[in-house]
Design goal:
This protein is mostly beta strands and 516 residues long. The protein has five helices and 38 strands. Among the domains are: 91 residues, Phage tail protein beta-alpha-beta fold; 81 residues, Immunoglobulin-like; 113 residues, no CATH class.
């Protein structure tokens, strides 16, 4: 009998231990990206088949929260809901109790400073988290941090996790008796690779083993980089100066879609939350909420703003088989079409099919903050309509660029490079034929520093960047990129920039540059 009771007791205890995190580990899919905490709790409760217990006065039920990944464990969703609140979750049978951390616990302050190990400079923006809790802080401009944490009677020390996007993470054990004036020194994790001046051999312009580079743009003599460690929703924006040294780090509010330059060379950052205009300020970056204007439209990309104030842009029709080239006069508030190109043959072939498939798509990307902008791949802001591979090959690619006070229209439909002055008056046209090559990749690049124009080919599993003579339309020198399957190619000051993930298993996607 004694043994039987012991067995029952063991099974009871074991069952409780095994069930301790059953509810919190359940996978639940919420139906929306944005809602109040109250709405999310009711939905999780219904789908998880359990109940929440809490006090209406202690839980911020009316707080609105944004969730990117809608399918997660219950515990992960609760962490998002209560990210800015000290709420603990206690599992009891078929319910989860939500309550604020006990105010009866004694609190203490942990403080210190974080510096660069190599140069002893204070580091701003370093994340410090108390292991096993939701408490943490970030260092200020002087590298100083301060964390207020509850402490139990039997707490002997604290484990601090220190991390920074450009430094190797570190862990520090701090005794309860030495919680003030802690000094932490981090080792830089940015690769310091000297420039390789051998023609055709790329160098890593920026990258390391800790983060992925998602997107980049070149702003004056600086490079802007969107980077993340594990999740794109937790991204940062880095500012790298002309010496390829990190100057500034800013956290991005919202999951980024990408960056692009508008016609006055401002960099626009698009996120699922809202669009921003990025400007340089005090050797760092300033985020300004952006609104759609003639200067930064995506579906009607502005190419140039002339000294006379005219804004030149072009716009593909809903089937992308016609394109209008126009200019807008802000004084008269009128826009005028000065050139129209239509692929009549393809338009007639696809008209019946496209009328069914493209209804309502003409202005699908009019709103910069439209979440559907996620269809955009980051390197081409000219087309957003969904189309088959066969249809894409028939679609027009006729970009217009502004260089040395002249407009260049690449009329690949008719095999002409058309040149206009800054008043939209046609000067002359020259023949082009490179677009007939099956290896051509429908891209045109401009190097504003050297005033040269390039196009792209893909031959023998390698990309080739080839110069186009803007006077004759003939192809010039070719630069074969050293790596295969690179992303987002740009040309700047006689160098090709691109994103690439090295073969080494411990490297993330890096930014490379290769001399032309």
């Amino acid at each position: 009998m004694k043994n039987f009771l012991s067995l029952l007791f063991f099974l009871f205890v074991s069952g409780n231990l095994l069930c301790q995190s059953v509810l919190l580990d359940k996978l639940v899919t919420v139906s929306r990206h944005s809602a109040t905490i109250d709405v999310y709790l009711k939905e999780i409760s219904a789908k998880g088949n359990f109940t929440f217990t809490y006090s209406n006065t202690q839980i911020p039920l009316d707080k609105k929260v944004f969730i990117i990944n809608r399918t997660q464990k219950v515990s992960a969703i609760l962490d998002i809901l209560f990210k800015n609140y000290d709420v603990e979750y206690i599992e009891r049978y078929n319910k989860i109790i939500l309550k604020p951390l006990s105010s009866a616990l004694k609190t203490i302050n942990i403080s210190g400073i974080v510096k660069d190990k190599s140069c002893d400079e204070s580091l701003a923006g370093v994340n410090i988290k108390v292991y096993g809790s939701s408490f943490g802080a970030q260092t200020d401009q002087q590298g100083v941090f301060r964390i207020t944490v509850p402490v139990h009677k039997n707490t002997e020390n604290f484990k601090l996790i220190i991390s920074h996007i450009s430094y190797k993470s570190d862990t520090v054990i701090v005794p309860k008796s030495k919680i003030n004036k802690i000094a932490v020194f981090l080792e830089s994790n940015i690769l310091d690779i000297p420039e390789i001046n051998i023609f055709g051999v790329p160098q890593i312009a920026f990258g390391n083993t800790e983060f992925h580079i998602y997107d980049y743009e070149i702003l004056q003599d600086n490079i802007l980089l969107i980077v993340y460690e594990k999740r794109l929703s937790k991204s940062n924006l880095l500012l790298v100066n002309k010496d390829l040294k990190l100057s500034c780090i800013r956290e991005i509010g919202g999951t980024p879609v990408g960056m692009y330059k508008d016609c006055v060379d401002d960099v626009n950052l698009i996120t699922f939350y809202k669009p921003y205009k990025l400007t340089l300020k005090d050797e760092c970056l300033s985020f300004v909420s952006a609104k759609q204007t003639w200067l930064n439209k995506i579906h009607k990309p502005c190419v140039a703003k002339t000294k006379a104030g005219l804004l030149f842009y072009y716009y593909y029709g809903p089937t992308r088989l016609s394109v209008d080239f126009s200019f807008y006069n802000p004084v008269t508030k009128k826009d005028s079409v000065f050139r129209q190109i239509t692929d009549t043959i393809s338009l007639n072939e696809l008209k019946e099919n496209l009328e069914k498939n493209t209804q309502g798509q003409q202005n699908a990307r009019g709103n910069m903050a439209d979440i559907k902008i996620g269809d955009w791949d980051g390197d081409d802001r000219l087309s957003f309509e969904t189309a088959s591979d066969v249809e894409k090959k028939k679609q027009l690619y006729t970009p217009m660029i502004f260089l040395q006070d002249s407009l260049f229209i690449f009329n690949h439909c008719e095999g002409l490079l058309e040149i206009y002055n800054n008043q939209a008056k046609h000067i002359r046209s020259v023949n082009i034929s490179y677009q007939d090559s099956p290896d051509w990749k429908r891209k045109v690049y401009i190097d504003n520093a050297t005033k040269k124009i390039y196009t792209l080919f893909f031959k023998n599993n390698h990309y080739e960047v080839t110069e186009i003579d803007k006077l004759t339309g003939a192809l010039g020198e070719t630069c074969k990129l050293h790596y295969t399957w690179v992303d987002k190619i740009q040309v700047h000051e006689g160098n090709v920039y691109f994103l690439y993930k090295p073969a080494q298993y411990n490297f993330r996607k890096c930014l490379y540059k290769q001399k032309l």
